[in-house]
Amino acid sequence: MTKVIKTKWHILCVLAMVLIMAMTIGGCHFIPISDGGSKKGVASIIGVSQANMREEWRVALINELREETAKYEDIRIVTTDATGSAAKQIQDIDNLIGFGMDLLIISPCDEKMMGDKIKEVYDSGIPVIVMDRAVEGFDYTLYIGPDNEVIGQQAGSYIIDLLGEKGGDVVVLQGNPASVQGTERLSGFKSAIEKASGINLHEVYMGAESKDAAYDMVITARKIVEEADIIFTYSDNMALGACDALRELGLESKVMIVDCDGFKGADEGIDLVSQGRLKATVSCPIGGKEAIDYALSILNNESGVPKQVILRSNIIDKGNVEENLNRINADTVDDGRKIKVGYSQVGQESNWRLANTKSIEESAKDFNIELHMEIADQSQEKQFEAIRSFIKEGVDVIVVSPVVETGWDEVLREAKAAGIPVIMSDRNVLVENREENLTTTYLGADFVEEGRRAMRWVRDNVDAGDGDKHIMEIMGNVGASPTEERDRGFREILAENPGYDITYSAYGDFTFDGGRKVVREYLENNEWDIDIIFSQNDDMALGAIEELKAHGIKPDDDVKIISVDATTEAFEAMVRGELSCAVECNPIIGPQLMKAIRDLCSGKQMPFRIITDEKVYDQSVAEDYIRKRLY
Ligand code: GYE
Question: 585 CB under 6 A from ligand 1?
Answer without folding.
Answer: yes
